[in-house]
Amino acid sequence: MRILMRSVFALIVLAVVVIAAMLWVPVQYTPSKTLNEAESAVTVARGEYVMRAANCMACHTAEEGQPFAGGRKIESPLGTIYSTNITPDQETGIGAYTLDEFRASLYDGLRKDGAHLYPAMPYENYRFLSEIDVQSMYQYFMQEVPAVRNEVPKTALKFPFNQRWGLRAWNWLVLQDPEFQPVADNAQLNRGAYLVQGPTHCAACHSPRNWLMAQDGVSEQGAAFLTGGVVDGWSVPDLRGKDSVTAQWSTQQMAHYLATGRNDHATSVGEMALVVKHSLQYLTDEDNLAIATYLTHLSGSSELGTLSSAPQKERTETEKLLTSADPSMPLGPRLYLDNCAGCHFDDGRGAAEIFPALDGNALVNAELATGLIHVILHGAELPSTEQRPARLRMQGHAWRLSDEEVAALATFVRQGWSNQASAVSASAVKPLR
User: Fold this and answer.
1) Can you tell me the distance from the alpha carbon of 291 to that of 11, in angstroms, rounded to the nearest whole number?
2) Is the Cβ–Cβ distance between 432 and 374 less than 8 Å?
3) CATH of domain 317-432
4) Which residues of the chain are in CATH 1.10.760.10 domains?
5) 422-425 long-range Cβ contacts below 8 angstroms, 24+ apart
6) Could you report the per-residue pLDDT of 356-405, keeping only the tens digit for each?
7) What is the third-level CATH fold of 187-298?
């Protein structure tokens, strides 16, 4: 009887998926003017700017490969996905795409041949791109990007994920109506919201995933929008809650971080460093400030555009321990003094725009310690940007610290000063070497 019940349930699920796949149809989009774009022109220069905001080059350029020629490995929970060639090559790229077909790839994740792209392509977010931005991007790719003949490896996921037709049902269940909806009677807030929800697709990393592996919130109408996620085992910080970094930083400090990957509180690491390097540093100061203003608005803070300085604190128990010269000092703080204190100091505050503060740091206090362990083992590098060209690098310590020592050091940092994160075990370190 149990086997029969499971079989009936499986047939019902399959029927729902098939019906959903039959019901979903690609967007038949009727362009409209939003964000005062009636006076704006479709230009190649605008297309290049939107391409930078959308971070197309980072995903569609393989290591040591030609720009936009595809073939970059994108690791997903389903397996390895290879990015497509988006140069205007007629045979292996998008050179034969019409504007409508180009738009369909951005809004619906559809290739020219009608096959569905995997949602590693963030078309959940690109559906909010304005028509003027889409047309400008099309002109840029067709007119300015050199055609590169490059047959990328075929994505070959295991069954059932290799059945791309199933994405038709996924789209029916997941995708929202296209076209960005203004959030306020304020041009700066609307511009910031448009950039966050659409081109820069912040929710692709900073929103959690639901049971369908879709973004749990692509706009602020979703309660979980930008409340934090997980990427490659790293905790991605909350940008919306009262305890989020946006609630603790000034708007100017947030904008400066977006443009340079650093501010008085933190430095960018991991995927965020790549976003700054390939995308956000190319945005205008006005646009990065608009993004910061919108994020500050989401966190519920009324503070806009002023610099804040951290108040002077009394010496913490951690500082007292680190300066005690106690011969019986535990392993964690001793390792910190030997390897970290020279840059991050006894008070854990670091140096503004150079060495990030560890006290209160989002990466340090993340639910998953993966990011911190990775940085201790392999180091980190700040990207060189126009405003801050110095490429600063922290060395990795994998060559000199054992798994047990890395765990002790990470635990000390996660529980030092005002930090109250969980301990780290040696077994969590070993897989990351």
Assistant:
1) 46
2) yes
3) 1.10.760.10
4) 187-298, 317-432
5) 422/367, 422/369, 424/369, 424/372, 424/373
6) 999 999 999 999 999 999 999 999 988 889 898 888 889 999 999 999 99
7) Cytochrome Bc1 Complex; Chain D, domain 2 (1.10.760)
